[in-house]
Design a protein that fits this description.
The complex is a heterodimer of chains A (93) and B (431).
Chain A: E1 2-6, E2 20-24, H1 28-38, H2 43-46, E3 57-61, E4 64-65, E5 81-86
Parallel strand pairs in A: 1-5
Antiparallel strand pairs in A: 1-2, 3-4, 3-5
Chain B: E1 4-8, E2 14-16, E3 30-34, H1 36-40, H2 45-49, E4 79-81, H3 83-90, E5 99-103, H4 114-127, E6 132-136, H5 140-152, E7 155-161, H6 166-173, E8 178-182, H7 186-199, E9 203-204, H8 210-215, H9 218-227, E10 235-239, H10 244-258, E11 268-274, H11 279-286, H12 311-321, E12 324-328, H13 330-344, H14 350-364, E13 374-378, H15 403-413, H16 420-428
Parallel strand pairs in B: 5-13, 6-7, 6-9, 7-8, 10-11, 10-13, 11-12
Antiparallel strand pairs in B: 1-2, 1-3, 4-5
Helix pairs in contact in B: 3-13, 4-5, 5-6, 9-10, 10-12, 11-12, 13-14
Classes of the chains: A alpha+beta (93), B alpha/beta (431).
């Protein structure tokens, strides 16, 4: 299931500058495994010691927060674009 | 050598001073940390109180570049006693003197507390050499960035959800800012902006300048304490969108205590949200320490952030203080806007309606007691969200400019008992 993953600048020093990869993964767990293998340095920046997605990392699939799509259980569709984005506050009230 | 620098809120790594909001090591947010030992010698009540009445009187406690000279008298808004509102909220006259409004509906220059954060962010934007500033916004921040940028001669690019209130869009356009409407909600605009900030060297006040920006919110807390006569209140009720303001008011109080400017005290923090966008109050009420994002559906658009980045910290502040969080429906928001206006003469926007409506619930739940000193944070002006009141008041038919016509109007629309001057006459003539 080929999907594209966009990596933000803040994390690119752990990917040797790579900003985007295309890979095969059917869910978030598999995607993390692919990223772990490809970029071992990146692993601790995406998940905490308990293996949970880091609190301040948001994951979007085609502009939608993956938590609205079922989170870990979401099955990636062919051509999905996955964004890793740091959580940013502000704007209101 | 500056007396402040960026530090990761989670792992503690320091980052000096630079336009950056995320720790590369653990991806957590950065905040500004100060050398309080150095500050202790230079800050005193006397020194502060001799300065002009604006937020810059607390400049040592803000991350301002060396040599910074403010060009706008932002902040130091009124702290109003609200006895008539207190009576309505509690149902008794007991404690009428103990309720206060921190009225940022009249904060200069754009009538919301966002002027405070933008003032600090833009001081750093200039110091870092940005010629363009930007933000994602639910409206008030857009107005503030556009106005301050005009004043400072910076270009402004403002990203907003396309369904924003017309007054907030106009109030951004007028300053010459480039307004980009996004077909999506605030969380989507925000996500886009963090991607744009990754590609363009712009000073995004709530992305790469965010740690500095957020410090401006502390001035609400400093002012509350000073205006209460250098003491802390028992309770603060604060509207929550991203969750930053309530956290920063707590930080402000802690700093004042740390520096010996006020006596230490356990202040309870209460968070206010609209039920249609209540990720933080839901977490507090269900005992969770984590945010479950929501899709906002509320007229309180300035609070419509379904995925609040500071939500986790807001929950900590609220729970750690012994406070609570509540949320109110859209009709309650409207009624509360009217209540505040009718009792205290303060016209607030929907966020203020959320705060007042929440306060009413907290009083009824006995979480706030009449004998306690309580401050409600009113963060924005009602003239910006008049469309929320569309249809609430009927437009009456015009009458002819004749006294007799007015008297007929008076007789027709008012009960005699409502017209003190007319009662006696009406009774005298036996009508």
């Amino acid at each position: 299931m080929p999907i594209t993953v966009q990596i933000p600048t803040a994390l690119r020093r752990h990917t040797a500058g790579v900003g985007s990869i295309t890979c095969a993964a059917s869910n978030l767990g598999e995607l993390f495994s692919v990223l772990d293998e490809k970029f071992p340095d990146l692993k601790p920046h995406l998940r905490d010691d308990q293996g949970q997605v880091r609190r301040f990392l948001n994951i979007y699939v085609n502009e939608e927060d993956i938590r609205f799509l079922g989170g870990q259980t979401y099955a990636f569709q062919e051509g999905d674009e996955v964004l890793l984005v740091p959580s940013i506050a502000g704007g209101a009230p | 050598m500056s007396h402040y620098e960026l530090r990761c809120r989670e792992c503690g790594r320091t980052w000096g001073n630079q336009p950056r909001s995320i720790c590369d090591d653990c991806f957590s947010p950065l905040e500004v940390a100060y050398d309080y030992d150095a500050l202790r010698a230079s800050v005193s009540r006397e020194r502060i109180s001799q300065r002009p009445p604006n937020m810059w009187r607390y400049s040592e406690l803000l991350p301002l570049p060396q040599g910074f000279e403010p060009r706008l008298p932002v902040g130091f808004t009124p702290l109003l006693q609200a006895p008539r509102l207190a009576q309505q909220l509690s149902g008794t006259s007991a404690g009428a003197k103990n309720l206060y409004l921190k009225n940022d509906a009249v904060c200069l220059p754009t009538l919301s507390f966002k002027d405070r954060v933008v003032a600090v962010a833009l001081s750093q934007a200039k110091a870092f050499g940005f010629d363009t500033v930007s933000c994602s916004s639910t409206g008030n921040l857009a107005n503030a960035v556009a106005a301050h940028a005009a004043r400072e001669g910076l270009k402004a690019w403002i990203f907003i959800p396309s369904d924003l209130e017309p007054a907030k869009i106009l109030g951004t356009n007028v300053f010459g800012a480039k307004v980009v409407r996004i077909a999506g909600n605030y969380d989507q605009v925000n996500r886009l902006c963090s991607q744009i900030a990754d590609e363009h060297r712009w000073g995004f006040v709530n992305v790469n300048l965010r740690p500095y920006y957020a410090e401006g919110s502390k001035t609400v807390g400093f002012e509350i304490a000073e205006q209460l006569g250098w003491r802390l209140p028992d309770n603060v009720v604060c509207p929550m969108a991203g969750g930053s303001l309530i956290v920063k008011i707590k930080k402000a109080f802690d700093e004042l205590v740390n520096l010996g400017l006020v006596e230490g005290k356990e202040v309870k923090f209460f968070g206010a949200q609209a039920t249609g966008c209540s990720p933080i109050s839901t977490a507090v009420k269900t005992g969770s320490s984590e945010i479950e994002p929501q899709k906002p559906v509320t007229i309180a658009r300035s609070l419509a952030i379904g995925n609040p980045a500071d939500g986790h910290y807001a929950i900590k502040v609220i729970k750690g203080s012994g406070g609570w969080s509540e949320d109110v429906s859209d009709p309650e928001v409207i009624n509360s806007i009217k209540l505040l206006a009718e009792t205290e003469g303060v016209f607030t926007e929907t966020a203020g309606g959320v705060t007042v409506g929440t306060a009413r619930k907290l009083w009824r739940q006995d979480r706030i007691l009449p004998e306690e000193t309580t401050v409600l944070c009113i963060t924005g002006n009602g003239l910006k969200t008049t469309d929320a009141l569309a249809g609430v008041y009927e437009t009456e038919a015009a009458i002819a400019p004749k006294l007799a016509e007015f008297e007929r109007y008076l007789q027709g629309t008012l009960r005699p008992s409502d017209i003190p001057g007319v009662i006696a006459e009406a009774e005298a003539v036996g009508t």
